[in-house]
Design goal:
Length: 101
């Protein structure tokens, strides 16, 4: 009986691990979400650069694609937290000024 209860609890906890209630939780994504967003931003910026550099493509064709890609980049950047850089040395503005004679 105890084995059945332990098995049922284990099965229930595994079933709830990927439940829809957990969808959209950023702590579950970890660094994968950050990396995927930056890779997508990089790909969209490359697509914009290639379209803008190609003179053979009509402006009427590439303008909506570029506008949509820029809007997608803005949306992706809004989902990312601000950068928190950890510097190993103090900032250059904290040192004493250098006087040249």
């Amino acid at each position: 009986m105890i084995r059945l209860a332990v098995f049922a609890c284990a099965a229930l906890s595994l079933a709830c691990l990927g439940s829809p209630a957990e969808a959209g939780q950023h702590w579950r994504w970890g660094h994968g979400h950050w990396r995927a967003a930056y890779e997508t931003i990089y790909a969209l910026e490359n697509q914009i650069a290639l379209l803008e550099a190609d003179p053979a493509v009509d402006d009427g064709y590439k303008a909506p694609i570029i506008s949509r890609a820029r809007a997608d980049i803005l949306k992706l950047r809004a989902t990312l937290p601000p950068a928190r850089w950890r510097w190993t040395v103090p900032c250059c503005y904290s040192r004493r000024p250098i006087y040249i004679r």
